[in-house]
C-alpha cells in the first residue's frame, strides 16, 4: 500500500508528533514512548508505513514506521551491522517515529540502538493492521481536521444529526422512516466530518458510498431507489450526535452528555437499548427532541 502523505495546511503551520499523539495514546494502544523530547520536531508531512522486513530503502521524510513482531525479532537476532545500517538509513531519511506493534516493552538492545541514532520509538499492544488504521485516522483528524465515522447522518430542520451504533441496531431503518420535508437524508454507513476554518463541523457522506445505503433485509441499494432528490442533501452543519448502546438492564434510557469531535464540544444523546431490542423511528424522534432542548 503506498503511503498517503498528510501535508501542512494554512490552519496547521507546524506538524509535530507531540501534537498528533496528544490525548490519543490509549486509543492507539501505546504503552510507552522512548525519547519523547524528540516528538517536538516539526515535519512538512507525516504518513504511515508498515514494515515487515528489515531492508534499507529510500523513504520520504516523515514516515511513521510500524514494525511487526517478525521485524522486531529479526532486528534482535540479526547481525549488529544490519541493525546499524537499518537505523542509520532511517535517520538519514528523516523517519519521524518507529512503533513496535503487539509489544508491551522495548528490548534493551533496541532501546540503546534507537537512542544512539536519535530515533523516537513507541510500543503498542495493537496488531499492525489496526494500529495502521488508527494512526491514519488520527492524522486525518489532527492534520486535515477530518474524520470518518460509522453511522447515519440526517438533517432535521436545518441541523445535522449523526446516529452511531453497532451494525444491525436499526440506525438505517429508523432514519429512512423519519425522512420527510423536515428531515433530509445525508449519509449511511460512513459519514465524513470536517472542521471548517470557521470552526464549524460539516457532515457529509463518504465519496465512495454516499449514493448507497444498507439494511440487513434489503442489502446494499441505491439511495435514489427509495428516496427522491428533494429528500436528500450533500452536506450539512453537524449539531449533535445520537449514540446507540446495547445494555443488559432491559430498560430503554435517553441521557444527555457532552463529548468532543475534532476538539469541538457537541451534545450527545446516549440511547441505551435492551440487548434484544432495536432502535426505531419513535426513539429517534425522542432523541431529536432532547437534542433540540439544548439548542
Textual characterization of the structure:
By secondary structure, the chain is of the alpha/beta class. It folds into two domains: 139 residues, Udp-n-acetylmuramoylalanyl-d-glutamate--2,6- Diaminopimelate Ligase, Chain: A, domain 1, CATH 3.40.1390; 148 residues, Rossmann fold. It is built from seven helices and 19 strands. Strand 15 and strand 16 form a beta hairpin. Helix 6 packs across helix 7.
What order do the helices and strands come in, and which of them pair?
Blueprint: E1 6-7, E2 15-16, H1 17-21, E3 30-34, E4 42-43, E5 45-51, E6 63-67, H2 69-77, H3 80-93, E7 97-100, H4 108-116, E8 121-124, H5 128-144, E9 146-150, E10 152-156, E11 159-164, H6 171-178, E12 183-187, E13 190-195, E14 201-205, E15 212-215, E16 219-222, E17 235-247, E18 253-261, E19 264-274, H7 281-293
Parallel strand pairs: 5-6, 6-7, 7-8, 11-17, 17-19
Antiparallel strand pairs: 1-5, 2-4, 3-8, 9-13, 10-11, 10-12, 13-14, 14-17, 15-16, 18-19
Helix pairs in contact: 6-7
Which key terms come to mind for this protein?
disordered N terminus, elongated, 295 residues, 2 domains, alpha/beta, Rossmann fold
Low-confidence stretches: 1-12
Q: What count of helical segments does DSSP give?
A: 7
Q: Which CATH architecture of the largest domain would you pick? A: 3-Layer(aba) Sandwich
pLDDT averaged over residues? 90
Question: What is the terminal separation in angstroms?
Answer: 44 Å
C-alpha geometry: elongated
Summarize the structure.
This protein has 295 residues and is α/β, with parallel strands linked by helices. The chain has helices spanning 17-21, 69-77, 80-93, 108-116, 128-144, 171-178, 281-293; strands at residues 6-7, 15-16, 30-34, 42-43, 45-51, 63-67, 97-100, 121-124, 146-150, 152-156, 159-164, 183-187, 190-195, 201-205, 212-215, 219-222, 235-247, 253-261, 264-274.
Amino acid at each position: 500500500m503506498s503511503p498517503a502523505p498528510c501535508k501542512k495546511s494554512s490552519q496547521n503551520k507546524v506538524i509535530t508528533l507531540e501534537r498528533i499523539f496528544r490525548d490519543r495514546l490509549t486509543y492507539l494502544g501505546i504503552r510507552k514512548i522512548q525519547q519523547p523530547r524528540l516528538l517536538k520536531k516539526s515535519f512538512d508531512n507525516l504518513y504511515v508505513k508498515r514494515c515487515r522486513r528489515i531492508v534499507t530503502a529510500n523513504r520520504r521524510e516523515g514516515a511513521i514506521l510500524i514494525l511487526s513482531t517478525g521485524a522486531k525479532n529479526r532486528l534482535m537476532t540479526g547481525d549488529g551491522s544490519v541493525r546499524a545500517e537499518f537505523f542509520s538509513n532511517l535517520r538519514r531519511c528523516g523517519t519521524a517515529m518507529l512503533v513496535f506493534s503487539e509489544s508491551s516493552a522495548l528490548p534493551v538492545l533496541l532501546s540503546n540502538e534507537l537512542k544512539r541514532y536519535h530515533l523516537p520509538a513507541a510500543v503498542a499492544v495493537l496488531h499492525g493492521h489496526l494500529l495502521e488504521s488508527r494512526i491514519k485516522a488520527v492524522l486525518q483528524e489532527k492534520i486535515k481536521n477530518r474524520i470518518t465515522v460509522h453511522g447515519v447522518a440526517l438533517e432535521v430542520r436545518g441541523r445535522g444529526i449523526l446516529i452511531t451504533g453497532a451494525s444491525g441496531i436499526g440506525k438505517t431503518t429508523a432514519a429512512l422512516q423519519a425522512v420527510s420535508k423536515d428531515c433530509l437524508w445525508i449519509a449511511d454507513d460512513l459519514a465524513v466530518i470536517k472542521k471548517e476554518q470557521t470552526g464549524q463541523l460539516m457532515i457529509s457522506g463518504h465519496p465512495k458510498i454516499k449514493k448507497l445505503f444498507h439494511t440487513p433485509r434489503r442489502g446494499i441499494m441505491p439511495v435514489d431507489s427509495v428516496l427522491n432528490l428533494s429528500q436528500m442533501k450533500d452536506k450539512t452543519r453537524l449539531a449533535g450526535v445520537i449514540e446507540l448502546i446495547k445494555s443488559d438492564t432491559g430498560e430503554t434510557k435517553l441521557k444527555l452528555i457532552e463529548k468532543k469531535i475534532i476538539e469541538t464540544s457537541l451534545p450527545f444523546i446516549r440511547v441505551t437499548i435492551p440487548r434484544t431490542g432495536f432502535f426505531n423511528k419513535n426513539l429517534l424522534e425522542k432523541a431529536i427532541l432532547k437534542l433540540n432542548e439544548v439548542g
